[in-house]
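Thread: quick sanity check before group meeting

JM: Hey all, I'm pulling together slides for Thursday and realized we never actually wrote out the predicted structure for the chain we discussed last week. Dropping the sequence here so it's in one place. If anyone has concerns about the input, flag it before I start.
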Amino acid sequence: MKKEMIKKELKPLMQVSEIDLIYKSKVRPRDRPTIKSSKDAFDILISAYDKNKIELVEQFFALFVNRANKVLAIYCVSSGGITGTVADPRLIFSAGLLLSAVGCLICHNHPSQNPRPSEADIELTKRMKAAGELLEIKLLDHLIITDNEGYFSMTDHGII
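JM (edit): ok, ran it. Output follows.
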């Protein structure tokens, strides 16, 4: 009888959610593309964009790499409006942690077709770099891409 009472009292404490971290790659390591430059990253990331939306709405992507700079995954973080979208570092780095990534490149488009970064873009880059350092996932670059004008690399321009 006493055992049942204890079990009944503990029941609310046992009703908790469980999580399970799983990563299953469908791509063999030798078949993964390698990022050697901002141009390599641009070529891979531009293919992730919907060509019908790139001049319409901002979209934010994260690309994760392993120690050999082989691409582990591309993650569509958000799709927003004409002048902005949400880039939540918690969502981005939770994906990187799940992948056991050591590097991350972030990317968003400017529907205006002007690839120059805004002050908000530069500030986000600084916050993302600091968050990545804390988690030991290095922010390798932040690309701003356009369909017609190419891209702007914050690493190539010394911002990162």
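AS: nice. The chain has one domain: 23-153. The two ends are 65 Å apart (CA to CA).
JM: adding both to the slides.
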